[in-house]
């Protein structure tokens, strides 16, 4: 038999490797330390990319880029102001009514709870929120007082938190982030190839050409995805609202907004949006109205799947639904609303990068 000899295993780690590892760890730590700034920058980039197709279309009419960007932002500001002053008051009041009825809805569908889970905490939370919103929207005379609502809402949050200072700082922190996002996105959009120039500054020269080429592909997809998703959400929300109004379902505005927002979730979004609507219908008039509501959502879902979604979302982004769902969950957990907003664009970027890696491997094989 051959004589077996033990061999010592030597692992050599150079100082350069240690230095690179330390730099990577520091970069990751720095990103988390300035997470809010990173989120503001990324959101600004996505917004600038989202309106790029609109600007390009306006440029074809020989409108200067600066004028096109200003017109786009003015239109968005007018639409947002119209929504705030004419739609938000009704939505807030309808939300208070909906939350006030949540305990009733939970009790009504208790037979659908085979595990007999206790929803007392959820019912109490809904009741407190409903009372808080109702108090915040309390009218003086007639009509909705937006100023009074904000004052009362601030007082509610002040009483519920550690103090008014924390609430004010949190509120103005959000305002500051919003203003920065608007300013940065405008600055990036008003420049010809503004996002590309920004990336050229922060990306090493070695990877500059590839990164700029990758971003050009992703930018187009992000722009059309944003427009398509907005169109999809508005269309579905309007259809849901009209159908629910026709059949006399309560809280139609809230349920329509839920349906519009849940459109960002592929496959399961419409199902999740239908659950509260069916519960409202069942609590309101029993099985008959619940089945009608379920049928309404099914018809809208089929219309969406066969006519709208394939045209405006699926073919543009090209990201598998499962990846989108995971990205939404991860984005929401890491960064809240902005994380959800950025999840699909980042997933699109990663999918393009992975495709390039696969092509590179195949070309070398």
Walk me through what this model shows.
By secondary structure, the protein is mainly alpha-helical. Helices cover 81% and strands 0% of the residues. It is built from 13 helices and no strands. The protein is globular, with a radius of gyration of 26 Å. One of its GO terms (biological process) is transmembrane transport. Pfam families: AI-2E_transport. Keywords: Cell membrane, Membrane, Transmembrane, Transmembrane helix, Transport. Belongs to the autoinducer-2 exporter (AI-2E) (TC 2.A.86) family.
Number of helices: 13
The unreliable regions are 139-146, 156-172
Instruction: Estimate the global geometry from the Cα principal axes.
Output: globular
> How many β-strand runs?
0
Q: What structural class do helix, strand and pairing data support? A: mainly alpha
The whole-number mean of residue pLDDT values reads 75
Strand residues, percent = under 5%
The secondary-structure element order is HHHHHHHHHHHHH
Largest sheet: none
Calculate the terminal CA-CA distance, rounded to whole Å: 41 Å
Compute the CA-based radius of gyration.
Answer: 26 Å
State the share of residues found in helices, binned by percent. Answer: over 70%
SSE inventory with pairings:
Blueprint: H1 15-33, H2 35-50, H3 52-59, H4 65-108, H5 120-136, H6 146-160, H7 164-190, H8 194-202, H9 208-246, H10 252-261, H11 269-285, H12 287-317, H13 321-364
């Amino acid at each position: 038999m051959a004589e077996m000899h033990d061999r010592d295993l030597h692992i050599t780690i150079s100082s350069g490797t240690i230095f690179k590892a330390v730099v990577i760890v520091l970069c990751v730590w720095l990103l988390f330390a300035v997470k809010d700034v990173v989120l503001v920058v990324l959101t600004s980039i996505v917004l600038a990319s989202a309106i790029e197709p609109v600007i390009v279309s306006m440029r074809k009419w020989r409108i200067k880029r600066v004028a096109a960007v200003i017109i786009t932002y003015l239109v968005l500001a007018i639409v947002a102001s119209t929504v705030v002053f004419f739609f938000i008051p009704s939505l807030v009041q309808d939300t208070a009514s909906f939350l006030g009825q949540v305990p009733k809805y939970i009790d009504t569908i208790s037979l659908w709870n085979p595990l007999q889970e206790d929803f007392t905490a959820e019912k109490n939370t809904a009741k407190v929120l409903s009372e808080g919103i109702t108090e915040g929207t309390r009218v003086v005379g007639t009509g909705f007082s937006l100023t009074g609502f904000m004052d009362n809402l601030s007082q509610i949050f002040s009483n519920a938190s550690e103090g008014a200072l924390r609430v004010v700082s949190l509120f103005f922190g959000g305002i500051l982030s919003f203003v920065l996002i608007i300013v940065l996105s405008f600055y990036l959009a008003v420049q010809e190839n503004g996002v590309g120039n920004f990336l050229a500054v922060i990306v090493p020269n070695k990877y500059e050409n590839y990164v700029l080429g990758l971003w050009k592909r992703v930018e187009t997809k992000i722009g059309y995805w944003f427009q398509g998703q907005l169109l999809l959400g508005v269309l579905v929300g309007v259809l849901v609202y009209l159908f629910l109004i026709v059949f006399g379902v309560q809280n139609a505005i809230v349920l329509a907004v839920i349906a519009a927002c849940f459109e960002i979730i592929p496959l399961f979004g419409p199902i999740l949006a239908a659950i509260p609507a069916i519960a409202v219908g069942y609590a309101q008039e029993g099985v008959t109205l619940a089945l009608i509501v379920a049928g309404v959502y099914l018809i809208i879902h089929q219309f969406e799947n066969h006519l709208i979604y394939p045209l405006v979302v699926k073919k543009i982004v090209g990201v598998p639904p499962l990846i989108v769902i995971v990205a939404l969950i991860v984005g929401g957990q890491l960064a809240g609303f902005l994380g959800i907003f950025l999840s699909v664009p980042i997933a699109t970027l990663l999918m393009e990068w992975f495709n390039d890696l696969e092509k590179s491997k195949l070309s070398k094989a």
